[in-house]
Amino acid sequence: MIRRKDKVKNTSVHIRLGIYAVIIIVTLLFLFWISKMAYRNTALELEKEYIQTLAEECVTNIETSIRYGKELSNYYGLDEELRTISGYQNQGIGVVVTDADTEMITAVFGDKEDESNQTAYNKDMLTWLYAYLGQEQNAEFEKNVYAKEVSMGSYDGIIYEISDSEGGIEGYLFVLYDSGTLVDVSDVSLLSLSSDYEKMIQQSVSNTQQHVQEEIDALMDKGLGTSEIAELSEHFDEVAARNDAVSEITIANDGTVTAQLDLTYVHEKQKYFLMYLVAIIIICIIIGVEFTNLIPAILDKIHKRRQHKQSYYTKKGIGGSIRVLSFVMYTAIYISMPYAAIVMRQNNMRVFSLSESLSSSLPLTVELIAVLVVSLIVQRIYANKNPYVLMGAAAVMLIVGNLACAGVSSPYMLILLRMFCGIGFAFLKYVFNSLVSLGSDSDTDVKEHFAGLNAGLLGGITVGSSLGSILAGVFGYLGNYLFTGVIILIVFALSPIFVAWKELNDKRAYQVVETKQSISLIEVLRNRQYRWVIILTDIPLNIGLMYVVAFLPVYMGIIGQQSIVTSYAYLVNGIAGLYMGVWLVKRLKKLHKNKAVAVAIFMGAAGFLVLLIGKSAIVVLISAVILGVFDGFGTPTLTGNFASMGEKNKDDKAALLTIYGSIGSAVQIICPALYGVLANSEGDMIPMTIFGAIYAMFGVVFLIFGALFLKEEKYER
């Protein structure tokens, strides 16, 4: 006879296996889908390369004719010239030529396969172009736009200048196309991506060969002999140079054209794509592993329902729900948050008379300022409110703000909406801090839950940024905001399934009975102990946290590393923090507080000083790993120690966490300028050496005097 205890245990095992099976299936389905999207992005790049080859040749032909006396405004045969681009593979490509003042001269559109209303499609494309030109005229049309890629609402385009013999601008050529339908991946299989990729490159070479063959046939029809055509070899060499997949174009005596495939190019592209695919697989594994943290929380809910309990949760359940909620929300946010500047640039959005670079930086700057300011207000006004209600307010602001961003066309509206999202983000961060505080019964719980919260943040940034770049290639950067809004809506709707909102709110209500008003920023800064701990820990912590955002991409560009190496640096940084850092938090919990803080700061210094070894990819990856571990271990250690300071404020941890984070956000504002100096030191290692030494000194000072600031005790077991 099976005992009741064994029956319950077997049921628990079956539930776990069922959840694991669901997670594995969903992760694999997501892997198949996102791999297709990644393949589509690379295929789209090849298609765009070939379209640019046609466009550049067309511009060259037009400019040659102008130099021999033709006028652009009265160019006989211009439409026929443009059809070499618009007729490419029934893609519905539009080609528009304007004069120097961007007044339209002519427009030619290719037939779009399976387009039921071709005329409406063409008009729609022209409407977007007129809107773009209107914005350009208001901001003075930018010069030097040869082969400049732009985004125009639902369409993408490439702009070329048409110059005369003296370099003066005669007009512009616009190539317009719909990226969403330019590449078909419906028949692509995950198992054949590499071979399909090679076939796609070979097709690009075949297209070039066919195009040149048509040119040769046309010349021979006009009476040119093969000897005269041979004299045009320099021209055809230029055609080959425009398509990186073509190594050489040869013309036989009978006029037959042969385009040679550049095998080195193919192998490099395949290697790059496979590395890209491996990164995607790793990201999908991270997603699957992170969702396994839901199991204790879901089991808590099942146990509560079966035992008919009013309130039930476990430490593992709370920790798992905090980590997963943080992971999914930050993934959603970072799918779109970093790309506001690109949206501003691609759509030529400018604010007042500011430059393009300054205008494009405003949305993110305003959003971060909103997060900083509102965070301090929220922790004072809403300190004792139901966390689920605050989560609802955060979700509504983030959903509405991001969905509105998906259809925005005004730079002022985009900035306003990003500020609105920043307010929602501030509410969300306070909710996370409240969950850590309410779900903790000791200082050790605070550190472990905050480690989970920070791990979710690291995983969200790693996964969200990677997914954002892939999705943007498919749906456009404005489309990323749509994904952010939808994901947040789904997460908020499902959160009662795995977050113990009721239990934590009951605990909050019990604590509120005798709770005074929340501690303020002024009170913290007036306290000598708080002030010194902020100087010695909050400053180095947040400088280290900005390594990935403000230093790594700039430094990698300066030392000439490939973008795929930068992607892997982001990846190993996130994985190191997500798993090694969190593991260290538990492993080193017996250390005295001041020693644990010093270890974290020394770790950050080591991550920077290791760059003195050299500029190879291996050295940079090692640096990224060390600073990833620093993030995963240092953030909960330094933040948790600050939140546990002061006996009278022990029940005000959410406010202390928010204040510490807000001051950290202020520190992060100066980091781009600091890292700009370090990254652009042009081989001079002295600035990095001085910086690393000063960074390490913070750890030395805290190791010596930390006992004066922190209560000297071991972490609870």
TrEMBL record:
One GO cellular component, as annotated: plasma membrane
GO MF: transmembrane transporter activity
PROSITE patterns, alphabetized: MFS (PS50850)
Entry keywords, A to Z: Cell membrane, Membrane, Transmembrane, Transmembrane helix, Transport
Highest taxon listed in the record's lineage: Bacteria
UniProt domain Major facilitator superfamily (MFS) profile: residue ranges: 312-714
Membrane topology annotation: Multi-pass membrane protein
Transmembrane region(s): 12-34, 273-299, 320-342, 362-382, 389-409, 415-432, 453-475, 481-501, 532-556, 568-585, 597-614, 620-643, 655-678, 690-710
Compartments where located: Cell membrane
This protein's name: Predicted arabinose efflux permease, MFS family
